[in-house]
Amino acid sequence: MDTTLETECGFGSRSRAYARQSLANPSSIMKPLVTIISLVTFSSIQMDALGAEKPGSNEPPSSKVGEAVKSKIDKAAAVIHKATGPAVAPSEASAQKAIPMYSEVSAIDAAEKTFTHKNKDGKEVRFVVTTKTEIKNATAAAKFEEIKVGHFVSGLRIKKSDTEYEVVKITKFGPKAEK
User: Fold this and answer.
1) Is residue 23 within 8 Å of residue 38, measured between CB atoms?
2) Domains of the chain, earliest start first
């Protein structure tokens, strides 16, 4: 596996140990790769802007260099993609990040599998339980029907709007524990 990076990208044998380490931990190669791609792109843009030509050639040298570099970058990206899988856009990842939940149940709609929490300011927030929602009460498996009005529910949720959340996981529910 470590020779794949060398043969497909044309890197020398000095990088064999780094390639082995990078393929073992794919995230460790991302920062150096982004730096290299940025530098190469910037260099290519600068060379194109200069418009320098070689004597006896109709094509600027930067285009030949740019094509070779682009080819190497494409090959390196393909190898990294194989090792790490497809990248997720930062906006998608942050939009789908689960956040903690600790809410008192004000109302329950068993037909739609939702419960409502009324904030201190009187605003009602709706929590939607889906078929993918994992429901437990401490360590024991539980069902949505076991949650009652007045219970406090702990778990993870994903924000859908200002007044609606999708429940990812319910870890504990019941009357508020006395301290």
Assistant:
1) no
2) 2-87 (no CATH), 97-174 (2.40.50.320)
